[in-house]
From TrEMBL:
Family to which the UniProt record says this protein belongs: Belongs to the ETF-QO/FixC family.
InterPro entries, alphabetized: FAD-bd, FAD/NAD-bd_sf, FixC-like, FixC-like_C
Name by which UniProt lists this protein: FAD-dependent oxidoreductase
Cofactor(s) this protein cannot do without: FAD
Keyword Flavoprotein in annotation: yes
A Pfam short name: ETF-QO_FixC_C
Domain FixC-like C-terminal: 369-436
Span of domain FAD-binding: 7-185
Oxidoreductase listed as a keyword: yes
Gene3D superfamilies linked to this entry: FAD/NAD(P)-binding domain
UniProt keyword annotations, A-Z: FAD, Flavoprotein, Oxidoreductase
Naturally occurring in which organism (per UniProt): Geochorda subterranea
Length: 438
């Protein structure tokens, strides 16, 4: 391996790395794709939703082939605000989400090898169970010229190194980019629960290949800033919850205890009853949004996917943005290679393209949300306020002879009190509006 040279070395064979490798290899560049796991996706975890748009932008209509490893087509999405024994819900179901599919539930351990196979078929050279442990640099200019891997004589040289090795990126640190701060990452824990297909379809009101996603917050995060999810697969359910690491540092709770309490919530227990755990995993997720995104390109390198913090945690788009960013990186490198100009200035076109794209626009839109959540705190927002909303709903719908005007006033008082009075309610409403609108 020592001394081998390629047009590009891609570090990481997840959605970002495979998308970059596919884009470059299909345009004739020599590409090697490194993956530290036994196979792509072996060390990955995600909630489980993939969107058609990003996949179609990358490989065209090849997603229609029968081997696409997805579970169910998402036709209904629900959002739950959970009190200790109650729920306030909103959701949307639409038949047009079915054909063409808007999104699927999926497993990365099956999807990643499939996508990496597309890159291999296009001409990329996959090398698995190999970790890039350092960057090689030109001693005179400092330009990145390749990577050092954990094999004997493991030097690989390239015109450009595509760094797509995930949230715990070793090479990101070698570039001198600071590590994530506790308020910029969440710790997510997830279980895959086996349940007979007919029970899944009966409990979630599904027919055929229809699927449901449920995002929930409130009593299940035990006062921590966090969001949970429950997704339907063919014969399993994906259940998980993610909470901010800075909250966990203040109030240490073992992740498995958090997930166990989620499973015991009465609204979720009804859907999970009788299911058997077949897989458990935990993973960090970058959730700093716009302000946590570093410079994305430099002299001989580009940064993609989770390693770059390109995750829209509000709209659960991580793998989606990873594929989009990997494709953009590959396109810029191809253009630079054809122009014979692989300078840092030329590669910075990738940085500009990402920031102008839907990725940058969406992350900029929610740029104030992490600070807003930190300022108000999980206990007030996810425990007191969500609990008050459930109490208000109970009071509003309860018929006990109380005049409606009085019942509505009592319901409103629950929410206003939890938000800190009328002044606090107005301030919270303003902060929330700015948080989601940018």
């Amino acid at each position: 391996m020592s001394g081998e040279r390629f047009d590009a070395v891609v570090v990481g064979a997840g959605p970002a790395g495979a998308a970059a490798a596919y884009t470059m290899a299909s345009q004739g560049l020599s590409v090697v794709m490194l993956e530290r796991g036994e196979f792509p996706g072996a060390k990955n975890m995600f909630g489980g939703v993939l969107y058609r748009h990003a996949l179609e932008a990358l490989i065209g209509e090849a997603w229609k082939e029968s081997g696409l490893p997805v579970e169910r087509v998402v036709t209904e999405q629900r959002y739950w605000l959970l009190g200790p024994e109650s729920v306030v819900s909103i959701g949307h179901r639409h038949a047009r989400f079915m054909d063409p599919p808007n999104a699927w539930t999926a497993f990365r351990a099956r999807f990643d090898p499939w996508l990496a196979g597309k890159a291999k078929a296009a001409g990329a050279l996959p090398v698995y169970q190999t970790t890039a442990i350092d960057l090689l640099r030109d001693p005179a200019t400092g330009r990145v010229t390749g990577v050092l891997v954990d094999r004997d004589e493991g030097e690989l040289y390239a015109d450009v190194v595509v760094i797509a090795d995930g949230v715990n990126s070793l090479l990101r640190e070698k570039l001198g980019i600071p590590r994530w701060k506790p308020h910029q990452v969440s710790l997510a824990v997830k279980e895959v629960l086996a349940l007979p297909r007919e029970k899944i379809e009966d409990r979630f009101n599904l027919e055929g290949n229809e699927g449901v996603t449920i995002e929930f917050l409130g009593a299940t995060s035990r006062g921590l800033t966090g969001l949970g999810f429950l997704y339907t697969n063919k014969e399993t359910l994906s259940l998980g919850i993610g909470v901010m690491v800075d909250d966990l540092l203040r109030r240490p709770i073992a992740p498995y205890e958090l997930l166990e309490s989620v499973k015991q919530h009465p609204m979720l227990h009804k859907l999970l009853h009788g299911a058997e755990t077949v897989e458990y995993s935990a993973h960090m997720i970058p959730e700093g949004a716009w302000h946590a995104v570093p410079q994305l390109a430099g002299d001989g390198w580009v940064l993609c996917g989770d390693a770059a913090g390109l995750v829209n945690f509000v709209n659960r788009e991580g793998s989606n943005l990873a594929m989009l960013s990997g494709q953009m990186a590959g396109e810029v490198i191809v253009e630079a290679r054809r122009a014979g100009d692989l300078s840092a200035q030329r590669l910075m076109a990738y940085d500009r393209r990402v920031r102008r794209s839907v990725i940058g626009q969406d992350l900029r839109k929610i740029r104030r949300l992490p600070a807003m959540l930190h300022r108000w705190g999980g206990e007030r927002l996810f425990d007191h306020l969500v609990g008050a909303i459930n109490e208000a709903a109970y009071r509003y719908f309860l018929v006990d002879g109380t005049p409606k005007r009085q019942a509505e006033a009592e319901a409103l008082r629950h929410v206003v009190r939890a938000a800190g009075g009328w002044r606090g309610t107005m301030r919270l409403a303003w902060d929330a509006l700015r948080g989601v609108r940018g």
